[in-house]
């Protein structure tokens, strides 16, 4: 399923971005970034700025150079700031990543291009581990997402039911990489917002 090494994370801020909305901002930024912007943990802060994380210095530099060149709907110039930062979630140890990789391979059906992650935290392999590896934990979810990105073209459906997932920010990254996914089952979770 490929390498899981993470590139350095960079924070990105679009000043006043809340006014324009996520879709407009990402479509505007995608025009400047080859391969598109894949935001992690996108949110709007109390100052009305759009804030998110991206992987890689090259994309951060491209976004920084696009500052004041990106135009709003009324032709106003948008200010974009990027800054080096720590990973926005805890890293998983290599042993946990290897364990997740094995579980994903076991739960993937190549005939149907389907990945069954239903009731993941109750899998006997997961429950036998000293560390909690539930998909409702950001570090585990991002570990799974990073593994899935490496096989994105093979993935057509994912079952995430019965995982006590509350927030979908980490899976937004998966959606921007896995364009072939046609079905995503989120039933029997505690999703608070889409």
UniProtKB/TrEMBL annotation:
InterPro entries tied to this protein: Leu-rich_rpt, LRR_dom_sf, Nucleotide-bd_a/b_plait_sf, NXF1/2/3/5-like_LRR, NXF_fam, RBD_domain_sf, Tap_RNA-bd
Pfam families assigned to the protein according to its UniProt record, in alphabetical order: LRR_NXF1-5, Tap-RNA_bind
Domain of life: Eukaryota
GO BP terms, alphabetized: poly(A)+ mRNA export from nucleus
PROSITE patterns in the cross-refs: LRR
Domain spans labelled Nuclear RNA export factor Tap RNA-binding: 16-88
Domain (NXF1/2/3/5-like leucine-rich repeat): residue spans on this chain: 106-192
GO cellular component: a single term: nucleus
GO molecular function, one term: RNA binding
Name of the protein described by the UniProt record: Tap-RNA_bind domain-containing protein
């Amino acid at each position: 399923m490929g390498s899981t090494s993470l590139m350095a994370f960079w924070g990105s801020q679009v000043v006043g971005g809340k006014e324009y909305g996520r879709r407009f901002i990402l479509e505007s930024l995608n025009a400047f970034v080859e391969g598109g912007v894949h935001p992690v943990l996108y949110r709007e802060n109390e100052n009305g700025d759009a804030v998110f994380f991206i992987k890689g210095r090259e994309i951060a530099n491209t976004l920084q150079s696009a500052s004041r060149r990106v135009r709003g709907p009324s032709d106003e110039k948008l200010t974009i700031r990027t800054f080096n930062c720590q990973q926005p979630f805890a890293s998983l140890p290599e042993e946990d990543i290897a364990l997740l990789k094995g579980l994903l391979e076991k739960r993937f059906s190549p005939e149907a291009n389907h990945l069954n992650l239903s009731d993941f935290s109750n899998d006997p392999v997961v429950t036998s581990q000293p560390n909690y590896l539930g998909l409702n934990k950001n570090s585990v979810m991002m570990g799974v997402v990073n593994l899935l990105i490496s096989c994105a073209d093979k993935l057509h459906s994912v079952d995430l039911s019965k995982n006590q997932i509350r927030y979908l920010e980490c899976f937004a990254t998966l959606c921007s990489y896995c364009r072939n996914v046609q079905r995503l089952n989120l039933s029997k979770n505690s999703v608070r917002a889409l």
